[in-house]
Design brief:
Structural class: alpha/beta
Strand content: 15-25%
Low-confidence stretches: none
Radius of gyration: 22 Å
CATH superfamily of the largest domain: Glycogen Phosphorylase B
Helix content: 40-55%
Mean pLDDT: 95
CATH class of the largest domain: Alpha Beta
Order of helices and strands: EHEHEHEHEHHEHHEHEHEHEHEHEHHH
Number of strands: 12
Number of domains: 2
Strand order of the largest sheet: 3-2-1-4-5-6
Shape: globular
Largest sheet: 6 strands, parallel
CATH architecture of the largest domain: 3-Layer(aba) Sandwich
CATH topology of the largest domain: Rossmann fold
Length: 373
């Protein structure tokens, strides 16, 4: 199989789809007769590409316009390389597949479905613009042969676009258990100055809908019983000042630390610092962070939203709660903090699941089999 993975999002930029494309490319490339990844060009892209064992074809175009501004150049490249299978990380690059198919270049077109890209409409403020964008989306996705939703939630979104069950397979996201793994919690707390602290943590871009306010509002219910409780908020974003103000208003600022962005090579240590990973997101198509926490042997608390119930097995690798209920969240956190055996059992179950099925090696194998069938 001669395969091109086409993605708007790829390192050096960071994010869920960037991780998805980066990890899968490394697993798909060795299985293919020929493989290339096609992505927008970025500053420092060459540093990333030089470290990879496969070719990256970069196009000077904004991310969202790769499938339009980059159309002619990419199709010429596909023809020259005689690429015959296309795997699109997002539906927006499907104009490339449409043109390549008209020229008789490709045998199959597969598209991943993460979730937000099927919900988001950049023209929501204008009725006509929003309708035209939806019609454009519906037209393009009819040109794909097969879909790979990352969760049952996303599969349901595809069903609303009349994508039948026999044209899609849910292949859950994974993580890398060689990058995320358990480290002695006590020694790490000593290293970072948290000796004797009980730590809950969220890693996220600091925006609304991530449920960070719910965690902050849960803390006043907890700090009386757990005076050494510390909430680490790892990340940055436009909502940071609002969250800091809320912590002050609630009188729990001494129990909250905004760490800012943490270098990727240190994030495994931060997962291991915490006793519980918490993110009560109100919009999440999957949530790779829950698998990263599980790979480190940490139980997670997430919300019954989107694809999170695929990432967390309720009462086995963590807990699933309704969003925006701080008192109920406080009760769940208290139960876990008070029960070392339960936290250990859930953490071990999460790590075992990652090793068994929720890892990129397994995901890459499944996707290759589906694309090449």
């Amino acid at each position: 199989m001669k395969l091109a993975l086409i993605t708007q999002d790829f390192p050096p930029e960071t994010g869920g789809i960037q991780t998805y494309a980066y990890e899968l490319a490394q697993r798909l490339a060795p299985r293919c007769e020929d493989f290339v990844l096609i992505a927008p060009d970025k500053p420092d892209a060459q540093k990333v590409d030089n470290q990879l064992d496969f070719e990256v074809f970069r196009v000077k175009t904004p991310n969202t316009l790769l499938g339009t501004m980059g159309l002619s150049r990419v199709v010429r490249f596909l023809k020259k390389r005689k690429i015959d299978h296309l795997f699109h990380a997002q539906w927006q690059t499907l104009p490339i597949a449409v043109r390549a198919r008209k020229k008789g270049l490709v045998k199959s077109v597969t598209v991943a479905a993460h979730g937000r890209e099927y919900i988001f409409n950049p023209f929501d403020g204008t009725k006509l613009g929003a309708k035209l964008y939806e019609n454009y989306k519906k037209y393009l996705i009819t040109k794909a042969d097969y879909f790979l939703p990352v969760s049952h939630y996303t599969s349901g979104i595809l069903a609303t676009y009349d994508i039948p069950a026999n044209q899609q397979t849910v292949v859950m996201n994974g993580t890398n258990p060689d990058l995320f793994f358990p480290i002695n919690n006590i020694s790490l707390k000593e290293k970072y100055g948290y000796t004797g602290k009980q730590i809950i943590m969220t890693t996220a871009r600091l925006i609304q809908k991530k449920g960070l306010e719910t965690v902050l509002r849960a803390l006043p219910y907890l700090v009386g019983e757990f005076p050494d409780l510390q909430y680490l908020i790892v990340g940055d974003g436009p909502y940071k000042a609002d969250l800091q103000d809320l912590a002050t208003d609630l009188g729990i600022e001494a129990h909250v630390e905004f760490t800012g962005l943490i270098p990727y090579e240190k994030i495994n240590e931060y997962y291991n610092l915490c006793d519980i990973y918490v993110m009560l997101s109100e919009l999440e198509a999957f949530g790779i962070v829950y698998l990263e926490a599980a790979a480190c042997g940490k139980p997670s608390i997430g919300s019954r939203i989107g694809g999170i119930p695929d990432a967390i097995i309720d009462n086995e690798t963590g807990l699933i709660l309704e969003p925006r209920q701080p008192k109920r969240l406080a009760e769940a956190i208290a139960n876990l903090l008070s029960d070392d055996a339960l936290r250990t059992r859930m953490g071990e179950a999460g790590r075992a699941r990652v090793l068994r099925e929720a890892n990129w090696d397994r995901v890459g194998e499944l996707i290759f089999d589906l694309i090449s069938a």
